[in-house]
Write a sequence for this structure.
């Protein structure tokens, strides 16, 4: 049994590693391979390329806004469902999973239709809302669409987090000690869902950073769209940017997980100290 | 601060299930009352209504003379210890204990001092910095008790606080809870399905059935003079033995006439006599008096031994006697049984005598 496990691990791991590393390696090779030898021009010059910083910053801002909106929507909703409306759990789950089965292109077709009502609303205050939604600098409409698209990720991780704690007892304990609903949510529920919250946030951020369809159809220019646009004129720069975005995404994910890991590491340390105490 | 608590005609329905059907209970200041009953009897619902986690459909709840029926849970000043481990996993023991003071806006120094004081009280000095996962189940419940007491609540509510613990810890912790409760003189309501726990800890035990109070009395009275057949059978072990009511408020059992305590049916009625295992005297097979019987099983319980007997007429019963007297009464042994002359409760005949057990 153990031997089989070992062999299968020995086969699967290199295969998976190859599957991930070969395309990355090939891309890096492509981005540095010049006629006259290896050159890092694409990276050094590329960083100053027109549009890179703007589009990248737009993507990151959209990602963060999506996380905030998604969490503000989902944490209170799921807590309320668990505590007060357990019968709705199934329905909420199905609703949250919908974005997985609706392709983004269908979603954006609907969004385009709604946005086209703008002309008919020219005389009403709603017109301003539409203007705000389509703001070039920070298109809120993308935040809304991305929030919807992030629901499955948020639901899955928050649901797992909620199942891992005895939420009802914790909430009742806090209430009996005199905490208001808001205090309970902020001081008791959220800290105990920290890992789940960060997990959902990481997945949502990764999704937003790589999203192309919606942004492209609505003619905005976040990082992914920018990369595709420059591909024709500067193929090497595009690939170099892709490599950079990979690093940036990893960096962000690492940052978020480190933030989340703060407590578990503190725990692990204190456990270790205790062990030391008992040993000595 | 010790306050009285009055539950008046409390009613609560969940769908078509009646959880509380007009529950009345008066709890004196500083008293510890245990709510005891089979599952589904409404004891937990009653406690949750006192805590403010459930709303009563009807009736009143008075604390210190004031109607708190519509006061939300976080304004009731109650301390509660839950069945499952309810410590906040993200906080240390001290932070847990001080949480009630924190939401009340007390200064850090005061909170730290109070946490230290309470950890001493519950026998965990120096464990301020420990997280719940570093504490054993018993220690967690001690911290939970400290947390409930930290806010100096008017009333302490305990919802089966010991049921998740192993037997030995349960025993020491229940003595300690009682000691602390007596020291502080805090009015306490305690829910349990473990009658031994209820009888050993509480000043009075309230036995509930189908959302109503059957009897609320001191443990000794509950055991010796149960008010209803349900209480009699729920608390302790009880034999149901076939008897016949005779004139003069007596019932005939195994050829003996015993005074009836409580409701007396008409003479001639066939009834079940409720008799404790210690209410049967077991004698030698040849002593002439008494009903002949055979020992089926003998269970050694330490100071006493419980005999499962069958009379020659086929009635099964249990009898307790001091272990040193029971040494010869091994399975298969012949003996005689005689009921002690002590008032007994009678109940409607429910089972044919031979099917009894």
């Amino acid at each position: 049994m153990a031997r089989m496990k070992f062999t299968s691990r020995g086969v699967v791991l290199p295969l998976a590693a190859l599957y991930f590393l070969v395309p990355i390696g090939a891309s890096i090779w492509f981005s540095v391979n010049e006629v006259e030898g290896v050159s890092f021009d694409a990276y050094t010059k590329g960083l100053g390329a027109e549009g890179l910083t703007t589009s990248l910053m737009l993507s990151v801002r959209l990602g963060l806004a999506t996380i905030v909106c998604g969490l503000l929507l989902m944490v209170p909703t799921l807590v309320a469902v668990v505590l007060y409306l357990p019968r709705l759990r199934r329905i909420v789950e199905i609703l949250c999973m919908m974005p997985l089965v609706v392709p983004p292109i269908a979603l954006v077709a609907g969004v385009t239709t709604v946005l086209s009502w703008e002309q008919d609303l020219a005389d009403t205050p709603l017109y301003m809302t539409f203007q705000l939604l389509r703001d070039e600098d920070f298109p809120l409409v993308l935040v809304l669409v991305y929030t919807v698209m992030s629901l499955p990720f948020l639901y899955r991780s928050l649901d797992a987090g909620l199942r891992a704690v005895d939420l009802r007892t914790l909430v009742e304990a806090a209430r009996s000690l005199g905490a208001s609903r808001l205090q309970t949510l902020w001081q008791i529920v959220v800290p105990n869902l920290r890992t789940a919250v960060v997990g959902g946030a990481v997945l949502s951020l990764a999704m937003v950073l790589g999203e192309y369809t919606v942004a492209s159809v609505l003619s905005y220019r976040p990082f992914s769209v920018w990369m595709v646009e420059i591909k024709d004129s500067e193929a090497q720069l595009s690939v170099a940017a892709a490599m950079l975005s990979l690093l940036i995404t990893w960096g962000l994910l690492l940052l978020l997980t480190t933030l989340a890991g703060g407590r578990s590491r503190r725990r692990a340390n204190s456990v270790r100290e205790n062990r030391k105490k008992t040993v000595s | 601060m010790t306050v009285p608590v009055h539950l008046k005609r409390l009613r609560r329905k969940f769908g078509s299930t009646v959880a509380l059907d007009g529950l009345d209970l008066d709890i004196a200041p500083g008293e510890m009352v245990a709510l005891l009953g089979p599952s589904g009897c409404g004891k937990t619902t009653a406690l949750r209504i006192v805590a403010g986690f459930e709303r009563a459909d009807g009736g009143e709840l008075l604390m210190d003379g004031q109607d708190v029926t519509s006061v939300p849970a976080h304004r009731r000043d109650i301390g509660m210890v839950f069945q499952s481990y309810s410590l906040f996993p993200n906080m240390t023991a001290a932070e847990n204990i001080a949480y009630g003071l924190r939401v009340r806006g007390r200064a850090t120094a005061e909170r730290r001092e109070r946490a230290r004081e309470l950890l001493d009280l519950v026998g965990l000095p120096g464990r301020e910095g420990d997280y719940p996962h570093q504490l054993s189940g018993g220690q967690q419940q001690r911290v939970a008790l400290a947390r409930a007491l930290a806010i100096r609540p008017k009333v302490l509510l305990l919802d089966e606080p010991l049921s998740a613990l192993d037997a030995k810890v349960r025993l020491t912790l229940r003595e300690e809870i009682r000691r602390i409760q007596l020291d502080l003189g805090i009015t306490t309501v305690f829910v349990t399905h473990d009658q031994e726990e209820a009888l050993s800890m509480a000043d009075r035990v309230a036995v509930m059935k189908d959302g109503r109070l059957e009897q609320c009395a001191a443990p000794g009275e509950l055991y010796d003079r149960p008010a209803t057949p349900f209480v009699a059978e729920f608390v302790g072990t009880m034999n149901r033995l076939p008897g016949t009511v005779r004139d003069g408020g007596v019932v005939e059992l195994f050829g003996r006439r015993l005074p009836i305590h409580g409701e007396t049916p008409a003479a001639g009625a066939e009834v079940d006599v409720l008799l404790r295992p210690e209410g049967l005297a077991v004698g030698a097979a040849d002593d002439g008096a008494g009903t002949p019987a055979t020992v089926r099983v003998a269970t050694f319980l330490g100071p006493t031994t419980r005999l499962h007997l069958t009379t020659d007429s086929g009635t099964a019963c249990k009898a307790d006697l001091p272990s040193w007297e029971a040494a010869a009464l091994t399975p298969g042994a012949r003996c005689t049984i005689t009921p002690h002359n002590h008032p007994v409760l009678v109940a409607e005949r429910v089972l044919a005598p031979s099917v009894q057990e």
Confidence is low (pLDDT under 50) at residues 353-357 of chain B. The radius of gyration of chain B is 25 Å. DSSP finds nine helices and 20 strands in chain B. Chain B has two domains: 5-231, 237-355.
